[in-house]
Amino acid sequence: MDLITPEIGLFFWQTIVFLVLLFLMAKFAWKPILSSVRNREQSINDALASAENARKEMQNLKSDNEQLMKEARAERDAILKEARELKEKVIADASEEAKVKADKIVADAKRSIELEKQSAMAELKNHVAELSVEIAEKIVRKELSGKNEQHQMIEKMIGDAKLN
Amino acid sequence: MTAQKSLVISLYFALAFAIFPLFTVAQEQEQEHKSLQEAGEEFNATEMIMHHIGDAHEWHFFGGGENSVTLPLPVILYTEGGLVTFMSSEFHHDTEGQHVVEKDGMRFVNLHEDIYRLDAGAEAVEFDAEHHPVNASKPWDLSITKNVAAMFLTVILMLLFFTSLARHHKKNEHAPKGFNNVLETLVLFVRDEIALPQIGEKKYMKFMPFLLSVFFFIWITNLMGLLPGAANVTGNIAVTVSLGLFTMLIMIFNGNKDFYKHTFWMPGIPTWVKPILAIVEGLGLLIKPAALMIRLFANITAGHIIILSLIGLIFILENAGIAGVSVPFALFITVLELLVAFLQAFIFTILSALFIGMAVEEHEHH
């Protein structure tokens, strides 16, 4: 029966020792350990949350970047397209103008040629007329020695002149 | 990398504890053998076992009779004549009531680890037919016995271990390494597997110091009890009664209105059943911690008795060949006891947490 009869002395010491242990451990071990562990868990959770935030931010940034890139690309395309159009327009305009100018030059040339021709013809006519008059004078002087011959001459000349 | 290191440390511990029993076995064999030869009397297994699992006024290491090598411990007695203290070595290893110590005009003897004070004028103990002393009485014995000394050792170990962990936590934010990491894992085990599920998020912090203290106290004491020559502290009923009372008092003082209403006037049942249930539930308040107390005491004591019986078998049958069977069996049981040491600490703590949880639970109103 010794085995299951609690001894007062041991009971007394166990109670005292456990109370002291409880007090010392609570003050010097459990409280600092538990609070520090809790702080660490809190900071780990915070770190995880902030990492998640950073990841989201990164994603946002990335999509923003992509948006920007897209816009830039669209703008570039637009600018290029405009440039191409402008180029074509300029070329077209230039060739049009050139054509107009060329046509004008050609027309001017034609007109001046015509004028030159006319003036040359006029001169030629005058020349021919003068020549003809001189020839006629010489002939007349020579031919008009006889009357018949004079008449013949005149008629022939008139006839020629009409043909002209 | 850290996890691996902790594993190695745990394995080292497991190995260390697995090897120690070998020494126990060897030592105890030798011990019994010597005392057998010296005493020249018949081997009494019950006496040997009771001696090993019981408390003692000196810490016995080896040797027998006058040649014992022991650590003397202080004897503190409270008598009608006031407090008397002397070292247990003054008994000269006598537990048969033969050696009388005279102190402050009073005479004391150690009779099977009970200290008796001889009545005035008596020179030696006289026994009646049932071997009870007739001319002596027991004073209050508050001695630092072997169990108390072992308890102090546990307290010192716990303070060393956990203040080291606390120091780490005061200095650093990051998780500890090595042995401190093992300790922290165990602390978190108590918090996450015992306190939180049983008591709940809101109130568990208040009971953490008690649960942690009781868990590590029981576990470390259990483990130390498996060492050769160590004391059987948690297998002593006085110790478990004290621990059980702590749980009971915490339960009773922290019980809320709902808890007492459900204990003494259970709602939702016919009125005539209520008093019957009140008696049952009221007794439950006592029986719950009593069950804790008996479970721990019985498990640890039973483990020690099995090991000692297996070793005792060699001497009962007086055949060294039996050692071939009983030593491996004792080794097996000792390894099993390593598991039981943890398991009993865990069960005591989780049931304490459960009872406390029941007492502080906030009921949904049905």
UniProtKB/TrEMBL annotation, chain A:
Coiled-coil segments on the chain, per record: 37-130
The organism's place on the tree of life at top rank: Bacteria
UniProt-listed InterPro entries: ATP_synth_B-like_membr_sf (IPR028987), ATP_synth_b/b'su_bac/chlpt (IPR002146), ATP_synth_F0_bsu_bac (IPR005864), ATP_synthase_B_chain (IPR050059)
Record's subcellular location: Cell membrane; Endomembrane system
UniProt KW keywords: ATP synthesis, Cell membrane, CF(0), Coiled coil, Hydrogen ion transport, Ion transport, Membrane, Transmembrane, Transmembrane helix, Transport
One Gene Ontology term of the molecular function aspect: proton-transporting ATPase activity, rotational mechanism
SUPFAM superfamilies associated with the record: F1F0 ATP synthase subunit B, membrane domain
GO cellular component, one term: proton-transporting ATP synthase complex
Membrane topology: Single-pass membrane protein
Residue stretches spanning the membrane: 12-30
Subunit structure: F-type ATPases have 2 components, F(1) - the catalytic core - and F(0) - the membrane proton channel. F(1) has five subunits: alpha(3), beta(3), gamma(1), delta(1), epsilon(1). F(0) has four main subunits: a(1), b(2) and c(10-14). The alpha and beta chains form an alternating ring which encloses part of the gamma chain. F(1) is attached to F(0) by a central stalk formed by the gamma and epsilon chains, while a peripheral stalk is formed by the delta and b chains. F-type ATPases have 2 components, F(1) - the catalytic core - and F(0) - the membrane proton channel. F(1) has five subunits: alpha(3), beta(3), gamma(1), delta(1), epsilon(1). F(0) has three main subunits: a(1), b(2) and c(10-14). The alpha and beta chains form an alternating ring which encloses part of the gamma chain. F(1) is attached to F(0) by a central stalk formed by the gamma and epsilon chains, while a peripheral stalk is formed by the delta and b chains.
Record function comment: F(1)F(0) ATP synthase produces ATP from ADP in the presence of a proton or sodium gradient. F-type ATPases consist of two structural domains, F(1) containing the extramembraneous catalytic core and F(0) containing the membrane proton channel, linked together by a central stalk and a peripheral stalk. During catalysis, ATP synthesis in the catalytic domain of F(1) is coupled via a rotary mechanism of the central stalk subunits to proton translocation. Component of the F(0) channel, it forms part of the peripheral stalk, linking F(1) to F(0). The b'-subunit is a diverged and duplicated form of b found in plants and photosynthetic bacteria.
Annotated family: Belongs to the ATPase B chain family.
Name of the protein in question: ATP synthase subunit b
Organism of derivation: Christiangramia sediminis
Gene name in the database record: atpF
TrEMBL record, chain B:
Main localization category: membrane
SUPFAM superfamilies reported in the protein's UniProt record: F1F0 ATP synthase subunit A (SSF81336)
Bilayer topology: Multi-pass membrane protein
InterPro entries, per database record: ATP_synth_F0_asu, ATP_synth_F0_asu_bact/mt, F0_ATP_A_sf
Single Gene Ontology MF annotation: proton-transporting ATP synthase activity, rotational mechanism
Keyword 4Fe-4S attached: no
Localisation: Cell membrane; Membrane
Keyword Transmembrane helix tagged: yes
GO cellular component: plasma membrane; proton-transporting ATP synthase complex
Keywords attached to this entry: ATP synthesis, Cell membrane, CF(0), Hydrogen ion transport, Ion transport, Membrane, Transmembrane, Transmembrane helix, Transport
Stretches that traverse the bilayer: 148-166, 207-227, 233-253, 296-317, 329-360
Function, as annotated: Key component of the proton channel; it plays a direct role in the translocation of protons across the membrane.
Family the entry assigns: Belongs to the ATPase A chain family.
Protein name according to UniProt: ATP synthase subunit a
Source organism (scientific name): Christiangramia sediminis
Lineage, highest ranks first: Bacteria, Pseudomonadati, Bacteroidota, Flavobacteriia, Flavobacteriales
